[in-house]
Specification:
Blueprint lengths: L15 H22 L1 H14 L9 H8 L3 H24 L3 H6 L11 H10 L4 H10 L1 E7 L8 H16 L6 H19 L11 H30 L12 E3 L13 H29 L11 H7 L13 H21 L18 H17 L3 H18 L4 E8 H15 L10 H11 L15 H20 L4 E7 L4 H12 L4 E2 L5 E2 L3 E5 L2 H15 L2 H7 L4 E7 L1 H7 L1 H21 L3 E7 L11 H6 L9 E7 L1 H7 L2 H19 L8 H22 L5 H8 L2 H5 L21 H10 L10 H8 L3 H10 L1 H16 L2 H8 L5 H26 L9 H29 L5 H18 L4
Parallel strand pairs: 1-2, 1-10, 2-3, 3-4, 4-7, 7-8, 8-9, 9-10
Antiparallel strand pairs: 5-6
Helix pairs in contact: 1-2, 1-4, 1-9, 3-36, 4-8, 4-36, 4-37, 6-26, 8-9, 10-11, 10-15, 10-26, 11-13, 11-15, 11-18, 12-13, 12-14, 13-14, 14-15, 16-19, 17-19, 20-23, 22-23, 23-27, 23-33, 27-31, 27-32, 32-33, 32-35, 33-35, 36-37
């Protein structure tokens, strides 16, 4: 027997703060249910709670199963809500105690990485770096977390708002308060939890792209942007040269621009995303300018000012005679009016605090806004007021350089197959007689290079195109207009999914030429960065060859510009689904090194864009640790990393957490960029290669070579039900088939997580070790010789700890083909047990995560929270698959999905 942490107030041996928080929130939830639903309803929850407390380590809970089997559909919905609500509250209780967030932010034991950029700079100075050298390092830095949509996002913004307020109130309780204030906070907590109970956990309709944009911007507005402001203020004061710091940290987004397999993303969503982002940042600029206006009532009667400031002030249209001798205020009023005009142009609305429409000229570009602010700074500095400048003005300049009028640089992404079909139709409709799809790779590349060598367009305004082609052209035209309106920085990169050949890089260049974002000729140029995405194991292996072919073309140099930097995206998700955890991580690491080598050999810098997800199976784990685990020579001060779905709220959901994660990421990039490349021991390198190949073979033997595996996956996980739920705006599969190859990687991982297998985070490792014949000593040498392998082991151990083979076995029992299901499950369980044994042997541990007790406790807490939800989900899946199609059953399943995902903090 074990004491279940989800016992809504039950005591368990954990830290005092976590236990007290969990007890309080659990008690308040029961109190709210009794108040709103009656004592009988609260009694049912208590009965389920007691039954859950008797679950065995093997996942058996007969009392709970009997209770759930006797539930009506209405009661099932009710209990699903209760347990899902508790899993959310349990997370809050732990977060407020400062446990889980710090467990993620902190490095592994023995890791001596700097936690902040200031610390990293201090370390470099201690090593002898001069201010000039540091300024050069900062000027080359480009650290960009990229927010992306999530096909399996389960939380609603209204629920996130409730969680945020509960967290805030719980944080207040950490201080010693008078009894009356303590009672007041408890009553306000009760009110928030009662409101949460009456708030839908799910969406009645599928989330739209507009919803995703709005939800993400809510977090950007309330936590990410304030965190960036804090960081730039600190950096400007502590490490900037004369208070100035390069815009080394920026934010990116795919929301509204990622149309790969997404029918809802087009030119209109791109416009919506940019205008929505613009409103957020312009309102912030306006507020800062308004504050400066209030403070800088500096009169020329007491101090001279620069001629440039007087010229700027003379353009203001302030009729007040009281400000004729206050040029700083007049200049700031002009700046405010021009920002208002920019907002009117880009968003159709005034900025915050504007009282009337302005007829001044809007800024044509963010650089002009920054230039006006610099005039104010330089005038103050030149006339004895350097200390009057303060940090606010310099911080405003730094943020403006980083965010422009677009706030988040928006990436465009499309599949190479779509580009091929679009190019084919353009040639067909042009009357050229070219059948592009029938050409081989050499002929395609030759044709596309020729197309880029002149100015003539392929597109005619007098020609009607098919729906797909018309949509592609309209989206690219919207991007061209965005560049004209917001500046080049508003588009981060054009990402090419499924890149495998040189023609895959050339095709979007030809398409962008049609809308004026690429200029053809003897020396073609581009307004956008083109970034091939190498996703599968094979593509990662072939990526360096494709890059070499591209960089050997003379046109690549003019397209990349005077300071050539080629961006390449590396896919963790599809490579994992393709070849398993070890082969994927090895493929990404080797690919990164080989790509950096090719770029360096050709005299080109490289910027790697890591397509990571939240789960271990998709490259998840602490971002700073992931950066430090990158092969030497691959970071080069530049890195972009995706942040998806629930990880956005988890890593950036409040200002302190956002600041810590952003600061730690910037520090890790500096540290990683300064490391000297070490030549690995050839024996260690050979062992790693052998392990990756053997692991690949072991993984493929199960997932792709076993003819019964596809049916096993669809029956032993809730993937079929997940596909039908309204928990994402993007289809779960690229086609209508059930093939593993066509399923998107995120719902693949999500399904294994729901059924508590966590298979993508560890399967294939043990088989690889056995097939490669590696000893424990050799594996220990690997962990010592490769930072990425040490990180791989750490994250794999977390995935193993998060899995629950006892509950997974219950899902296997749902399969109609029990002979094959049990055979496959035994293979999976054997691999799990062996992987655990090997992982512990490598580091000499006795149990999973025993070297990280706080993280181990966090995993245990999360697991216990969702165990009864798994049991309830199993009962509901059995009903639905047995023919019960009532809406209540579907709703209850959706609630269990949301609760499990929230409790594990893992959707994919």
């Amino acid at each position: 027997m074990r004491d279940s942490a989800l016992s809504l107030g039950a005591s368990r041996p954990t830290s005092r703060d976590v236990r007290q928080n969990a007890n309080l929130l659990g008690d308040l939830l029961i109190e709210a249910i009794a108040y709103l639903e009656g004592e009988d309803a609260a009694g049912l929850v208590s009965k389920a709670r007691k039954a859950a407390a008797h679950e065995t380590e093997e996942g058996e809970a007969p009392g709970l199963d009997h209770l759930f089997a006797d539930l009506s559909n209405d009661q099932a919905v009710f209990l699903a809500r209760a347990f899902a609500s508790h899993s959310l509250l349990a997370n809050i209780g732990e977060d407020v105690a400062g446990r889980r967030r710090h467990a993620e932010a902190d490095a592994r034991p023995g890791d001596e990485r700097a936690r902040t950029l200031v610390d990293a700079v201090a370390a470099l100075k201690a090593e002898g770096k001069t201010d000039a050298e540091l300024a050069k390092i900062f000027a080359a830095m480009n650290v960009v977390p990229v927010l992306t949509a999530h096909p399996t996002e389960v939380r609603r913004r209204s629920m996130v708002d409730r969680e945020t307020e509960i967290s805030r109130l719980m944080t207040l309780r950490r201080h010693h308060l008078p009894a009356d204030l303590e009672a007041d906070i408890r009553e306000r907590l009760f009110r928030e939890i009662a409101l949460m109970w009456r708030t839908r956990l799910y969406r009645p309709e599928r989330i739209t792209v507009k919803d995703e944009i709005r939800n993400a911007l809510s977090i950007v507005r309330t936590s990410i942007l304030p965190a960036m402001v804090d960081l730039y203020e600190e950096w400007s004061g502590k490490i900037g040269s004369h208070g100035h710091i390069a815009p080394l940290l920026k934010m990116g987004s795919w929301l509204g621009g990622d149309r790969d397999g997404h029918p809802g993303v087009n030119g209109e969503t791109l416009k919506l995303a940019l205008s929505s982002q613009s409103r957020v940042i312009l309102d912030w600029y306006a507020g800062e300018v308004r504050k400066l206006w209030s403070n800088l009532a500096v009169s020329t009667a007491y101090t001279p000012v620069s001629d440039e400031l007087l010229a700027l002030a003379s353009q203001a249209k302030d009729p007040s005679v009281h400000r004729l001798d206050e040029p700083y205020r007049l200049a700031l009023e002009l700046i405010f009016d021009r920002l208002t005009a920019v907002s009117q142009k880009l968003t159709g609305q005034w900025v915050a605090y504007a009282t009337s429409r302005t007829d001044v000229e809007p800024y044509a570009h963010p650089d002009a806004f920054v230039a006006d602010l610099q005039i104010i700074i330089e005038s103050l500095e030149a006339n004895g007021g350097e200390r009057l400048v303060g940090s606010a003005l310099r911080t405003l300049v730094a943020v403006a350089k980083a965010c422009g009028f677009h706030l988040l640089s928006l990436d465009l992404r499309q599949n190479a197959d779509v580009h091929e079909r679009t190019i084919h139709e353009l040639y067909q409709r042009s009357g050229s007689g070219v059948r592009y799809l029938d050409l081989d790779e050499d002929a395609r590349s030759k044709l596309l290079i020729e197309e880029l060598s002149h100015q003539r367009p392929l597109v005619s305004p007098f020609t009607a195109y098919g729906e797909e082609t018309a949509k592609e052209l309209a989206t690219m035209e919207a991007a061209a207009q965005a560049v004209r309106d917001y500046g080049h920085a508003c588009i981060g990169a054009y990402i090419i999914s499924k890149s495998a050949t040189l023609s895959d890089i050339l095709e979007p260049l030809v398409l962008l030429k049609q809308v004026g974002l690429v200029w053809g000729g003897a020396a073609p140029r581009s307004s956008l960065k083109i970034a091939p995405l190498f996703e599968t194991i094979e593509d990662l292996e072939n990526g360096p060859r494709v890059l070499r072919q591209w960089l050997e073309l003379p046109i690549s140099r003019t397209i990349l510009g005077d300071r050539p930097v080629q961006e390449i995206m590396l896919g963790y998700s599809d490579s994992n689904k393709d070849g398993g955890y070890v082969a994927s991580r090895r493929g990404v690491a080797r690919g990164a090194s080989a790509l950096a080598f090719e770029a360096d050999r050709m005299g080109v810098g490289i910027q790697l864009f890591h397509g990571r997800g939240g789960s271990v199976g998709r490259g998840g784990g602490p971002a700073a640790e992931a950066v430090l685990a990158q092969p030497a020579g691959t970071v080069q001060g530049r890195i972009r990393m995706t942040e998806q779905g629930e990880m956005i709220a988890r890593r950036f959901g409040d200002q302190p957490t956002a600041r810590r994660n952003l600061d730690g990421l910037a520090a890790a990039v500096v540290q990683s960029s300064q490391r000297d490349a070490l030549r690995p021991d050839p024996k260690v390198e050979a062992a790693m290669t052998a392990l990756a190949q053997a692991s690949f073979e072991g993984y493929r033997a199960l997932v792709y070579d076993d003819p019964a595996f596809e049916d096993f996956f669809w029956s032993a996980t809730p993937i079929g039900e997940i596909v039908g739920l309204n928990i994402g705006s993007r289809p779960a599969s690229r086609t209508a088939s059930r093939k593993i190859e066509d399923l998107r990687a995120i719902p693949w991982v999500f399904s294994w997580s729901q059924a508590r297998f966590m298979l993508p985070g560890w399967y294939g490792f043990a088989a690889g070790v056995e097939r490669a014949g590696l000893s424990t000593g050799q594996l220990q040498d690997l962990a010592g010789g490769f930072d990425f392998f040490a990180s791989l082991l750490s994250n794999m151990e977390l995935a193993l700890a998060q899995s629950h083979m006892g509950i997974a076995a219950r899902y296997v029992a749902l399969s109609p083909d029990q002979d094959n299901a049990q055979r496959i499950f035994e293979t999976i369980k054997r691999e799990h047990d062996k992987a655990t044994e090997i992982a512990l042997a490598i580091r000499g541990g006795a149990s999973l995560l025993d070297n990280q007790p706080e993280l181990a406790e966090s995993v245990a807490l999360a697991g216990h929270s969702v165990d009864p939800l798994n049991h309830l989900q199993l009962e509901l899946l059995a009903r639905r698959r047995g023919g019960e199609q009532a809406e209540d059953v579907r709703l209850a399943i959706q609630l269990t999905v949301a609760g499990i995902a929230a409790g594990l903090r893992n959707t994919g």
